[in-house]
Description:
With 148 residues, the chain is an alpha/beta fold. The chain has helices spanning 15-26, 40-47, 76-84, 103-111, 124-141, and strands spanning 6-11, 32-37, 64-67, 94-98, 116-119. It is globular. It has a five-stranded parallel β-sheet, sandwiched between helices. Helix content is 38%, strand content 17%. The protein has one domain: Rossmann fold (3-Layer(aba) Sandwich), CATH 3.40.50.2300. It contains five helices and five strands.
Amino acid sequence: MNNCSMKILLVEDDNDHAELVIRSFNECDIPNEIIHAKDGEEALIFLNKKPVGSKTNLSFFPNLILLDLRLPKIDGINVLSTIKNDNFLKQIPVVIFTTSNSPYDIEKSYFHHANSYLVKPNDYPNYQKLVNDLAHYWLELNKNNNNL
């Protein structure tokens, strides 16, 4: 296991859902830091900040973005599109994490280059298992620029 803390940007407007994600990640055996953005605008403001004197330092940015679709101010698809159209940010994996099982939402998300699309389970044990599996895959097993 990697001993350094992995950063996750959670973009979620529902405080109960955010708390479930945070609690589930805290129960994983992967050290992590969760940055919670409550809407799409807040997420993009965070992602557009770059450390002073750095244009290419990915260590400042999250290793993973968990993105809900139904967000105030700027919706999830527009946030996803903005990220994936930015030459710097597009390297960060974006997992759509939503309650929507709509084929339209799934198709639109992949059209805008989502790295994965997951539907939130309705019960806590399955929710916790899904987050644990997600954490192990994206933050431990998957090799990308953020964890090399």
